[in-house]
Amino acid sequence: MNYGFNAAAVGLSVLSVALLGSSAQAMNLASNGSFANNSAGGSAYLGSGQTTIQDWNLSQIGYSFLIPDGSAAYTDINAAGNSPDPNGAPLSAPSGGPVDFWGSGMVDSPGGDWFLASDGAFGSAALNPTISQTLMGLTPGQDYTVSFYQASAQQNEFTGDVTAGWTVGFGSASQAATTMNHASMDPVSSWAQQNLTFTASASSQLLSFMATGSPVGQPPFSLLSGISVEPTNTTAVPTPALLPGLLGFGMTILRKRKAQSA
To answer: Which of the two residues, 145 and 124, has the higher pLDDT score?
Structure first.
């Protein structure tokens, strides 16, 4: 019997199983985390119950916009659409002009072709925009890392230092991302990745992002892009350097089987 061949086969089988296991664990459980699947032709105001962004729901009445990468901060954020004002007031800045951000550069997100911008200080916390979706296929007791990119901005025509951020919900648990301090009239900030760890308590749970900020009346905007949810403890992918060890493991198994059959 060719035990060398069989050992190689066993080792390669172990390698294949390890690779498959690692690949499965690395799958992003969040759908449309880049917001790329949407029906917007450009910047769009998102009302409560929006259907513009596939796989995501939006609650509350505050300002939220879906914005394509490459938009000019001061001229392209403005969007036609439903008014967030319950009395039907036009969507505009105090001067009557469009709703835009301070700054003149282009805004690009590192997490995809689109990003969300929400006013986290529209009024009381009950009015803060919250975007959410239900995650499926979770393993109760397993830790999951929620990763995303955030940035901050301030609505043009308003002055005063502001703060911006996101509170992330995972089922009944929640964590606050790093608070972003944004100086008065500063342009859109640099993007920073956030990584928050949660433990699943059920096979399906609600994932949510609530915009936060202060103070009310000097609109701070929290920007969001590139959302992913993956198991925290993923299996390391075996490298070619590990192959001899796997083959040796196969040889050991075959020697034991040979000794048992002798």
So the answer is: 145
